[in-house]
Design brief:
Layout (H helix, E strand, L loop, with lengths): L2 E3 L9 H7 L8 E3 L7 H5 L6 H13 L5 H11 L6 E3 L13 E5 L9 H18 L7 E6 L3 H10 L5 E8 L5 H8 L5 E7 L2 H13 L1 H6 L1 E4 L5 H4 L4 H11 L5 E7 L4 H11 L6 E6 L4 H8 L23 H7 L4 H7 E5 L2 H15 L5 H13 L4 E7 L7 H8 L7 H7 L6 E4 L2 H8 L4
Parallel strand pairs: 4-12, 5-6, 5-8, 6-7, 7-13, 9-10, 9-12, 10-11
Antiparallel strand pairs: 1-2, 3-4
Helix pairs in contact: 3-4, 3-11, 4-5, 5-6, 6-7, 12-14, 16-17
The protein binds pyridoxal-5'-phosphate (PLP).
Length: about 450
């Protein structure tokens, strides 16, 4: 399969090049040239398949031409070594005023308790596959990743100890939760954490600058593990198919999917799923106060803004990278986008209210990101529809916030406690590119 750039000014790339380069030469994002349809029979029987079986079928559509079947199967099966259950939120007979049943797709059962484990684990294995395929190529691959919290931990853990790869995690000082921070600052080995005196967008800008820096690229082989990388965002489509399979066993009705969104990689993979034939009738993109996409839907104008800090911090993005992919997928048609996706935006106060009321009414503990998804779905669901929202992280990852809002004392899962026992190791920098560059490539 060939990959083209959303900016249309770079040559086609192979999968390997798209994965290793991350971003195209013209700063565009790579898109697969074709999106294969899955056959009808696949959807007729999907409820009888396991997560790994479903994921392999989907992976084969994207990567089957470039990765041999046995290796691809192993990559998929190793990546998805944990379940992604669909859990009903609410009472059997439904809540007061509820139009249709609501489910939570729990994406927090992986090693770092957030959905990004799926893409990060897949990408680490695919990159290793390409490195191993060329034993003569003994240059180290350097993965640069900017994080607003959860990406850093998922990528660092996905790549930890992988030979031939060094990971640099850039994160905004004081803007990720202490639990998130320890998941990538305590690992050591081939992981370097870089604490940037700035916001997430500054971290993202430093990464983008590094990729465009010819001098640096001549010295080091750089790649990105942000959701701009096709090896991270395409595998996220797997679990939308699995959610549908689980829902099909239990409900009838048109399916609505609600995605708490920041950089829009997650919802973008869902839109790819729909193109492949996944019967989801429409999507809701739930935003926190960073309402750039919401405003785009209302006005047709895309106006990036500096990000605002919220309690759903992994969605604090002022210029979502994957917007370019959504625009490309819909041939730049605002009308077509609005047919498939509607939006919602919530203040911190609304997020907090939602966490409290959901817990009181249903007993289900949301995290601040999932709360945006739950609320947007409850408010948006119509008669004849059933819906699921993505519970993108475990509430314990945001324990301080969640406990203070809900008056709870949520238990920290064992795998999270283990990270907290380590010692923080990180390198500090300002948001100045030259200062950052000296960390990557110290002057002789
Ligand atoms: C990354 C993240 C999001 C946003 O996902 P995007 O793909 O950037 O839209 C939402 N919730 C959590 C918990 C996250 O870590």
């Amino acid at each position: 399969m060939r990959y083209y750039s959303t900016n249309g000014k770079a040559p086609f790339a192979t999968l390997e090049k798209a994965v290793v380069k991350g971003l195209a030469e013209d700063k565009g994002l790579y898109m697969p040239e074709h999106i294969k349809q899955l056959p009808r029979e696949f959807f007729d029987n999907i409820q009888d398949l396991t997560l790994q079986e479903i994921a392999y079928h989907v992976a084969d559509c994207f990567f089957g031409e470039d990765v041999d079947a046995e290796s691809l199967r192993k990559i998929v099966y190793d990546t998805l070594s944990f379940d992604i259950p669909l859990v009903k939120v609410g009472k059997e007979k439904g809540l007061k005023g509820e139009k249709g049943a609501i489910y939570s797709l729990e994406l927090f059962h992986g090693p770092t308790l957030a959905f990004k484990d799926v893409g990060a684990r897949f990408m680490a294995r695919l990159l290793q596959y390409f490195i191993n395929a060329k034993p003569s190529n003994n240059r180290c691959v350097n993965v640069l990743v900017a994080t607003s919290g959860d990406t850093g931990s998922a990528v660092a853990n996905g790549f930890l100890g992988v030979e031939g790869i060094h990971v640099y995690v850039l994160y905004p000082k004081g803007k990720v939760s202490p639990i998130q921070e320890c998941q990538f600052t305590t690992l050591g080995q081939n992981i370097t954490a870089i604490e940037v005196d700035g916001v997430f967008d500054d971290c993202q800008a430093l990464v983008k600058n590094a990729f465009m820096d010819e001098e640096l690229n001549a010295k080091m082989q750089l790649t990105s593990a942000n959701s701009i990388n096709v090896a991270r965002f395409l595998p996220q489509s797997f679990y939308y198919f699995y959610a549908y399979a689980q829902l099909k066993r239990r409900e009838n009705g048109r399916v609505v999917c609600c995605v708490p969104s920041g950089n829009f990689g997650n919802i973008c993979s869902a839109l790819f799923g729909k193109r492949m034939g996944l019967p989801i009738s429409r999507f809701i993109a739930a935003n926190n106060a960073n309402d750039i996409f919401y405003n785009y839907l209302q006005t047709g104008r895309y106006e990036p803004k500096p990000s605002i800090q919220t309690i759903a911090n992994a969605m604090d993005v002022g210029d979502p990278s994957n917007f370019a992919r959504i625009i490309d997928l819909y041939g730049k048609s605002h009308e077509a986008i609005c047919q498939d996706i509607s939006g919602a935006t919530y203040t911190d106060q609304q997020i907090a209210e939602t966490m409290k009321s959901c817990l009181a009414e249903t007993g289900y503990q949301l995290d601040p990101h999932g709360a945006c998804g739950y609320r947007a779905l409850r408010e948006g669901l119509q008669e004849g529809e059933v819906g699921f929202f993505l519970e993108t992280a475990h509430p314990a990852k945001f324990k301080q916030t969640v406990d203070s809002i809900c008056g709870s004392d949520i238990a920290i899962p064992g795998r999270l406690q283990d990270f907290m026992k380590g010692t923080k190791q990180s390198v500090s920098t300002s948001k100045d590119y030259d200062e950052f560059k000296k960390i990557l490539c110290p002057l002789p």
